[in-house]
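DM from R.C. (forwarded with permission)

"hey, sorry to bug you on a friday — could you get me a structure for this? deadline for the figure draft is monday and I only need the backbone to look sensible"
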Amino acid sequence: MPRRLNVYFLEDDMKSRRIKRLFDCIFGIILGIIAIPILIITSIFVFICSPEASPIFRQVRVGYKGKEFAMLKLRTMDLCQYFRQKKLKDYAAFLSSSSSFCCGVR
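My reply, with the result:
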């Protein structure tokens, strides 16, 4: 004898899904409102530290089933990055000029 499907169980499942969806939407809106001032302050600091570029950039990523989507991100920053790059360029120039001396080739 085949078992009967319990219709009340399916209705309860739909109710719990709707409640969960409502909770997710409300909680997401509240967290979004809290995060907006933090993101604005952070982007101002990024702009102050390096005004030559925009504090927000767009990155394309691959999502579910290979679908591409654009994502906005804050640039990560390092205050000493400029000086590190300059030192590396100077060091590379030194190595290229002194490599013939080290190898014995002139």
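R.C.: lifesaver. The longest helix spans residues 7-49.
me: no worries. Residues 89 and 95 are 10 Å apart (CA to CA).
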